[in-house]
């Protein structure tokens, strides 16, 4: 019995020694000891070193400025971020997304590593530091546009990509702090999403799944890997705006029926593997709250015509002189012309043969008064002829303080529109889409502004405008 008790006592002493020697006193390091001794040491050493913290935006520029080829980080720099993704439900695989701040983030980045169930260490909202020297910044798949931190590179017939961090690289380069913060989702509309939002935790409001998905589940079993489900939202736009949700075949919620109502959805902005489409990926279903009634979008049939000009009264090859319109040459002598072809009238700006080093021409609508409480949209058609340079441009602008004569003293705001490009067939009219003017109050003027010249062939292309409509609905 004495021998057994002695052995037990020795065992307890050894156990106590191991436990006490593996703990770190709170005043030994600036980060807590619950992360593990090695990780504490690594983070403390990084923060005490001469390494410089850089922003995610700066880091991503290193790749963009290297002709989109992977870059080996050879300087002592690091980034800090907050985990925006979670693989706990299987919808992410061997990847972690970080964003630069817990709220109102402006940049995100992807980290690929040879580890599953990363949520056990890199839980949602965890503050993470990455020591970058010796790692690569690039793309996991050529051309997919998702800028990624990896441990090595590999080259095939398509180019060079970054590869996952090994376990040793992960332990030596990625360090957690004690902080796990609540992430406030960045509220966006579908139309606002851009590549700048990749990796960010976001929220969409007033969202529902398309009607034809009733009875469908998050994942389609006929797919091999991932399923895209179309979401739609009612906004001030006519019709629905649309965006895709991507769900992995490994997601634990893949067989859950899609909700039928309207509401909010939260997830991470990412891309399909081939990079062709920006999508939303869920961390879990707690981010889906669609219990409200479905919405009804605006319809063009509900709108009246506030303004219309089809240029059908155009007199071919004359300076445009329609009642109320302003035709102004800011540079050069070329003015917008009235033109007609096959019985269709339109406005045209063509600097070809003018001999001017610069031609800048404005065509401005008559004064338009809109109801400040109405929904108002602009629509028009545009075409190009022999435009060969990106510097030979067409812009669409709006002003609320133009006095009807002093063009350059007015304040002009650019409008987003679908416009013809250099690859659009010559003289083929492109529909601008519906352009929301509802945020501009009172008196409005719409301007079409062309830049070119009459000396360089590449800058002497023409632009054509037709069928200018403004729709309004109270």
UniProtKB/TrEMBL annotation:
Transmembrane segments: none
Alphabetized PROSITE patterns for the sequence: PROKAR_LIPOPROTEIN
UniProt lineage: Bacteria, Pseudomonadati, Bacteroidota, Flavobacteriia, Flavobacteriales
Coiled coil (UniProt feature): none
Pfam families listed in its UniProt record: DUF5689
UniProt protein name: Choice-of-anchor J domain-containing protein
Highest taxon listed in the record's lineage: Bacteria
Organism: Gelidibacter maritimus
Occurrences of domain DUF5689 (ranges): 54-286
């Amino acid at each position: 019995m004495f021998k057994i008790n002695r052995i037990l006592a020795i065992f307890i002493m050894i156990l106590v020694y191991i436990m006490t020697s593996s703990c770190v006193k709170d005043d030994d390091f600036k980060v807590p000891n619950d992360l593990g001794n090695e990780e504490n040491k690594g983070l403390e050493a990084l923060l005490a070193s001469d390494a410089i913290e850089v922003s995610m935006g700066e880091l991503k520029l290193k790749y963009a400025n290297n002709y989109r080829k992977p870059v080996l980080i050879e300087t002592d720099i690091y980034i800090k971020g907050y985990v925006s993704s979670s693989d706990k439900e299987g919808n992410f695989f061997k990847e972690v997304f970080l964003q630069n701040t817990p709220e109102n983030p402006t940049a995100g980045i992807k980290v690929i590593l040879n580890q599953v169930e990363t949520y056990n260490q890199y839980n949602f909202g965890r503050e993470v530091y990455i020591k970058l020297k010796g790692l690569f910044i690039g793309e996991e798949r050529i051309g997919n546009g998702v800028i990624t931190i990896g441990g090595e590179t590999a080259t095939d017939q398509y180019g060079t990509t970054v590869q996952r961090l090994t376990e040793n690289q992960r332990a030596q380069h990625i360090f957690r702090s004690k902080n796990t913060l609540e992430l406030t989702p960045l509220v966006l509309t579908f139309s606002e999403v851009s590549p700048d939002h990749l990796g960010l935790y976001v929220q969409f409001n007033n969202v529902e799944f398309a009607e034809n998905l009733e009875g469908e589940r998050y994942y389609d079993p006929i797919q091999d890997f991932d399923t895209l489900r179309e979401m739609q939202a009612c906004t001030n736009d006519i019709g629905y705006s649309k965006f895709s949700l991507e769900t992995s075949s490994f997601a634990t919620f893949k067989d859950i029926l899609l909700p039928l109502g309207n509401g909010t959805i939260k997830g991470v902005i990412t891309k399909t593997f081939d990079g062709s489409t920006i999508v939303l990926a869920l961390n879990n279903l707690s981010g889906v709250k669609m219990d409200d009634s479905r919405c009804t979008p605006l319809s063009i049939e509900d709108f009246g015509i506030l303004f219309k000009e089809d240029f059908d009264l155009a007199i071919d090859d004359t300076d445009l002189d329609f009642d109320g319109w302003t035709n102004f040459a800011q540079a050069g002598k070329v003015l917008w012309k009235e033109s007609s072809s096959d019985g269709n009238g339109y406005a045209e700006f063509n600097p070809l043969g003018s001999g001017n080093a610069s031609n800048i021409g404005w065509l401005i609508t008559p004064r338009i008064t809109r109801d400040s409480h109405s929904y108002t949209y602009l629509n028009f058609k545009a075409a190009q002829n022999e435009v060969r340079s990106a510097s030979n441009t067409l812009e669409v602008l709006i002003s609320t303080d133009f006095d009807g004569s002093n063009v350059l003293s007015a304040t002009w705001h650019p409008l987003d529109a679908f416009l013809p490009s250099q690859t659009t067939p010559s003289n083929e009219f492109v529909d601008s889409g519906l352009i929301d003017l509802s945020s501009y109050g009172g008196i409005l003027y719409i301007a079409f502004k062309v830049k070119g010249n009459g000396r360089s062939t590449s800058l002497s292309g023409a632009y054509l405008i037709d069928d200018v409509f403004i729709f309004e609905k109270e």
